[in-house]
Amino acid sequence: MYQHGKRPTIASRHGMVAAAHPLAAAAGARVLGNGGTAFDAAVATAATLNVVEPYMSGLAGRGVATCYIAKERRIRCLDFVAPIPLNFPVDKLSRRDQLMRGALPVGAPGNLAGWCELIQSHGRKKLPELFAPAIAIARDGFRLIEFNIEEIRAAGPDLANHQALYPEWSRVYTGGQGTVSPGFILKQPDLARTLEALAQEGPGLLYGGALGQKIIDRLSELGGCLTMDDFKAVKPNWVDPATADYRGYTVNVPPPPCEGFQYLLTLRILEGFDLAGTKRNSTEHFDTVLRAIRLAAGVRIATGVPSRQKLAEILSDSFVEPLRARVRDGQPIVGPTEQWTPMEGQAAAQEESHTTSFSIADSDGNLICVTQSLGSVFGSAVVVPGTGLCLNNFLYWADVNPDSPNRVKPGGALPMCMAPSVVTKDDRPVLALGTPGSYGILQTQPQALVQYLDFGLPLQQAIESPRARLTDGREVLLEARLEMEVHEALRQRGHSVTSGPAWTMKVGGMQGVAVDPETGIFTGGCDPRRDGYCVPA
């Protein structure tokens, strides 16, 4: 039966872009319509997100992508998360909050290198054409929509406490006023010039060139540790995915050091339960899923960065069956969900969830899901004068606890809690699905997939369904659209449930594209918890 007040189903035979802002989705769809591949469209979408979602991602951030490459008939992942800086003073650090703002948490930008690798390997277009929409919007300006206003307003008071960072941030994003109001038109002429220069000169302008030096000089003034050697070490890597089978489908995510394997382990645990035989959104449904998520998070934290062999062991039946038994026993499950914490205490839950994810399909059969970030809202809050670039704070996500077995090392890999996914059926791609949400990413993905595969909801409805966010200990934030009787019943089963608002971005902001393998029709799904939008080609 038709339901009023719901987003319509967006479908196309020629291509689909699902992104976190309508202007970015439109930019990607325009590229598809002009003969570009999904990889070309991904770069146009990503560059435009830099302009219209400047607090979430940008070319000075980092990310990962999972792709079905039609000409190769296989899934590949592109990792563009750069190593820990060689001079990162980990021995002088012990807490994450030492790395929130300023120059020290800035890691070498990986996104631009990743974008360029996508089009060099599998694109048809060049940077000038792909950056053109972003350049035009940055130069001419765009009217802020509701979520833009909310994010910029919320960031202002915090950033005002950082005297060395605030003036340039305020000038670039608020016209020097420190806040914005409905109707505000955001123009970013410095960013437009930076994108124009990169389009003409290529990524060498950043990696070893004048733009990179300008960034390093500013960071040096502020006490940073990045050097040009760190910029030159940025090398996007194509790797084979980590995989798990679920209900006759294969779920593909980037392998370690990406932490997406928590998502896979959650699915392996849930494979042992007949969720479809329960009532959707019931106590039994949510209790089973939440318990599986918390157990999988504990394994991920205890394991660190597993080898391929170790990961295969973690996903094996012999390892998973005791975890299924633990779900069944009904006893409360207590444990961390973020990073390693000492047994005698739990760390405070982290509120940072400022990332973006988009999914794109083209008529050639390519399917790509990209998740990228600045780390936190406006990243490090270092906006390099004259460039319009807001730098990441990715090292905030580094485990610097001196007692942790997962403590990072200078020059080493940085594990990241991202999980852009492509799902296949009989080796054919059927779904690209990704979300922002910090460590909640690894929780949101299985919750939405259960709604889609176990309960058979259309993609848009699966994304809209109520979700939960687990944090350390027994804590669970649960959207209020789930019946209050379920909230109370979950408390009785040992979950420390906080009843949240009806909709909250703390449970993600998911974008996806489904492919009907019989008809080839693409269906988009976007999250109303953010400014998600689907645009067909």
TrEMBL record:
Respond yes or no to whether keyword Hydrolase is given for this record. Answer: yes
Spell out the Gene3D superfamilies in the cross-references: 1.10.246.130, 3.60.20.40
Q: Please give the InterPro entries that the UniProt record associates with this protein.
A: GGT-like_enzyme (IPR052896), GGT_lsub (IPR043138), GGT_ssub_C (IPR043137), Ntn_hydrolases_N (IPR029055)
| Superkingdom of origin | Bacteria
Supply one GO molecular-function term: hydrolase activity
Q: Which key words tag this protein in UniProt?
A: Hydrolase
**Record's protein name:** Gamma-glutamyltranspeptidase / glutathione hydrolase
The organism's taxonomy opens as: Bacteria, Pseudomonadati, Pseudomonadota, Alphaproteobacteria, Hyphomicrobiales
